[in-house]
Amino acid sequence: MRVGVLGSGDVGRMLGRGFVAKGHEVMIGSRSPKSEALQTWRAEVGAKGSTGTFAESATFGELLVLSVQGAAVATAIDLAGPESFAGKIVLDTTNALDFSKGMPPGLFVGLTDSLGEQIQRKLPKARVVKCFNIVPNSLMVDPKVAGGPPDMMICGNDVAAKARTVEILKAFGWPGAIDLGGIENARWLEALVPLWVRVAASLNAWNSAFKILRG
Ligand SMILES: NC(=O)c1ccc[n+]([C@@H]2O[C@H](COP(=O)([O-])OP(=O)(O)OC[C@H]3O[C@@H](n4cnc5c(N)ncnc54)[C@H](OP(=O)(O)O)[C@@H]3O)[C@@H](O)[C@H]2O)c1
To answer: Considering the entire predicted model, what is its pTM?
Structure first.
């Protein structure tokens, strides 16, 4: 599969590395496709990895990953070209973290809306699945933590897209995912992250994620 990863930060490079490791072709999209960090990434992953503009990456991918800074979501989609998302699964990793008052962060969108919903509204023909946003990038691919893998939670309106996402998660070393329902549930997945930051800071455990214990 050809995967377009829109985002050159830690998440984009980690998931890009993961998709290449699982046998896919990946193009990371960025405003600076020749940046030093992306050149290093490209050298590391080999011939199945490439870099391009947001528009080139969105055209390239049969499946897209959106992993840009939360405040830049609309700009990045406009740069990518909204028409390139039509019909495609879009794995949305973004968070609406507001660091304007320092640490720990709040949310600049929340409770009655979310980035996941804004992305789905902006891209009505895309099949948006909120995924990966509640775990640190260090645990996104083949997560190894004491106590077994954490729980991934996802949501989205397209049932088939979520089923495909679960297949991808299994290939990435996850047992599956807790499906919370439609994309409106992204507001709660995104709200979990300021809580996660507080928990991680309190425990000084940044390589950590939530797990549900069942009785
Ligand atoms: N870091 C984590 O462990 C983690 C975990 C879960 C979820 N997330 C979420 O996943 C997303 C990506 O996080 P990250 O840490 O990898 O990187 P990030 O620093 O939050 O975002 C970097 C990306 O955002 C793009 N960007 C920033 N400002 C922009 C603008 N004005 N216009 C267009 N694009 C812009 C950058 O584009 P260029 O490539 O052009 O510089 C880059 O591709 C975020 O929403 C974050 O909250 C992060």
So the answer is: 0.99
